[in-house]
Write a structure and sequence with these properties.
alpha+beta, Nucleoside Triphosphate Pyrophosphohydrolase, 2 domains, four-stranded mixed sheet, 4 helices, 17 strands, 16% helix, 46% strand
Length: 256
Amino acid sequence: MINSQIKQDLQKLYPGKAILENKNANGKVTEILCEIEPTTKHPEYSLAIAVIDSNTPHYHKITTETYEVTKGTLTLFIDGVEHILQKGDTITIKPKQMHYATGNEAWIKVYSKPGWSSDDHILITETNIGAGGLVKNIEGEFLIVLQEGNVWSLPKGRQKPNETLIETAFRKVYEETGLDKTNLILKKYLGKYYRIQFDSPNTLKEINIYLFETTLQKVSPQHDDVLKVEWVSTKELIKRLTFPKDKLFIQNLNLQ
């Protein structure tokens, strides 16, 4: 990124406006921001121009952002989904959606509501990768587990070192339901999604889910932190799941 030229261009276009630099871990400038309408003037919204080579994965607790590309091409990742934006394209990023971008000096108009603040800009400093199972019986019902803290979830958990994601999924289903490999048929990989770890705001969870089928009805959790395991319908599954990202993932599967 040619910092001096970009700053000169921004100063000509927006005289008197504050210009800020964001650097990566190596001290290289990867993003330059020009505050056109700062939050200090009106907390309900802010407007900035961002010139992006790359930025760090982050999310906002309450702010909704709208990006509009004014020059170049931006590759934006929202909750792991890639969006390629050209000049004139716009996209909205909702609160708690993890996002980051690469752009090769792409120019972006960023509208934030309420206005951007450092307290609401949460950097992702750690990513935990895990896997689990959506387990279906011959009645078309699905397993859901109740964990400590009154949390309803699919059987899933963090990947161990040297463990494949499929091995993690089999292990967590066994630990939380008592169903092992001899009782489960692996049908397919359903996909992955992301959410912020509820007890660690700087930690992102990548959750990979596999579809399993079983002919057994009896379940018996092997871990004390699992308080209850139940077979439920698709509708009840979506209703009971505690975390919105878990619900959304299941809804998008369009289960019959």
